[in-house]
Amino acid sequence: MIVFVDASGSVIAKNDAAKEIIAEDNDYQGMTHAICNRCDGYTNEYDLQSCVNCFLEAKEIGNSSFQVFMKTTHGTIEPFTATYQTIDEATGVKAFTLQNVSPQIERHDKMYQRQMMQKTIHAQENERKRISRELHDSVIQEMMNVDIELRLMKYQKDVDSLIHNSSKIEGLVTKLIDDIRNLSVELRPSSLDDLGLDAAFKSYFKQVEENYGIHVIYHCNLLTQRFDNEIETVIYRIVQEAVFNAIKYAEIDFVDVDIEVTDERLVAKVVDKGKGFDKSAQPKGTGLGLYGMNERAELINAKVNIDTDIGKGTSVTVEVPL
């Protein structure tokens, strides 16, 4: 569709397709800045919908196109790709061309939703595989050890051997309980739902220090502040993954974790002074840990930045706009 306006911004002519935007009645035809009455702002590099530096006020937009939101005669607000060019220098007449991009945006949104669903399923499957490995390598192995010791007890006749094996089984069962508890915390710590990020991190870092002997230097200004469940879950998982990667690959004795909230954003940062790695090279393992961080961050419109180099340690920062 195309609309012609004079130097004052009045509509002087339009094609039939433009009637979707500017009705046929005389109130709009020739009305000063009639386009403004139908415009709901345009997209620039800073704002989604804004009237700052409006194209109608500009001397010349040039050949570049931009996106503008227009009110239609059907009562809806729809996005259009637009150009605004001078076609007669003497009279100042300009041509305002529009192309409705709602169908393309709808297709893009559906494609994006489908991609996010695929990524979510992919992440869920990887999590299931990890849980399966944890169950097999720890819980099932411990249960098999208990089963073996119980079978041996059937053939033991002296009291001392029975007491010794009973103590051994007791130790195996205690370890089994700890393994199940740890796995439960990794899956979904109850403190995250009940008390929030700060409490969940304190519990997790205590477990890290007990299980791996790695000291976690933790700073947080959240206190009891809560966020949307999705934000808390994503932040917890990304920090958890970053700490685990540091333990697994960095060869460190301690790791720094900082959680800070301001009026504009929530920032979580995990820093180690370990081996670091070459970001341009294939990371150790499957690389799904780093991939998963970005996947999770996309779900809450957050950004993940990984700063690392060989011999210089690694810094993982995630920022969530609030």
Automatic annotation (TrEMBL):
GO molecular function: 4 iron, 4 sulfur cluster binding; ATP binding; iron ion binding; phosphorelay sensor kinase activity; protein dimerization activity
CDD domains per record: HATPase_UhpB-NarQ-NarX-like
Keywords (A to Z) from UniProt: 4Fe-4S, ATP-binding, Cytoplasm, Iron, Iron-sulfur, Kinase, Metal-binding, Nucleotide-binding, Phosphoprotein, Transferase, Two-component regulatory system
Record domain Histidine kinase: where: 235-322
The UniProt record lists the keyword Ribonucleoprotein: no
Enzyme class (EC, first level): transferase
Cell compartment(s), UniProt: Cytoplasm
Cellular-component GO terms for this entry: cytoplasm; membrane
Cofactor note: Binds 1 [4Fe-4S] cluster.
Keyword Cell cycle found: no
Entry cofactors: [4Fe-4S] cluster
Protein EC: 2.7.13.3
Subcellular location, principal: cytoplasm
Modified how: Autophosphorylated.
Binding positions ([4Fe-4S] cluster): C36, C39, C51, C54
Modified residues (Phosphohistidine): H136
Catalytic activity: ATP + protein L-histidine = ADP + protein N-phospho-L-histidine
Function: Member of the two-component regulatory system NreB/NreC involved in the control of dissimilatory nitrate/nitrite reduction in response to oxygen. NreB functions as a direct oxygen sensor histidine kinase which is autophosphorylated, in the absence of oxygen, probably at the conserved histidine residue, and transfers its phosphate group probably to a conserved aspartate residue of NreC. NreB/NreC activates the expression of the nitrate (narGHJI) and nitrite (nir) reductase operons, as well as the putative nitrate transporter gene narT.
This protein's name: Oxygen sensor histidine kinase NreB
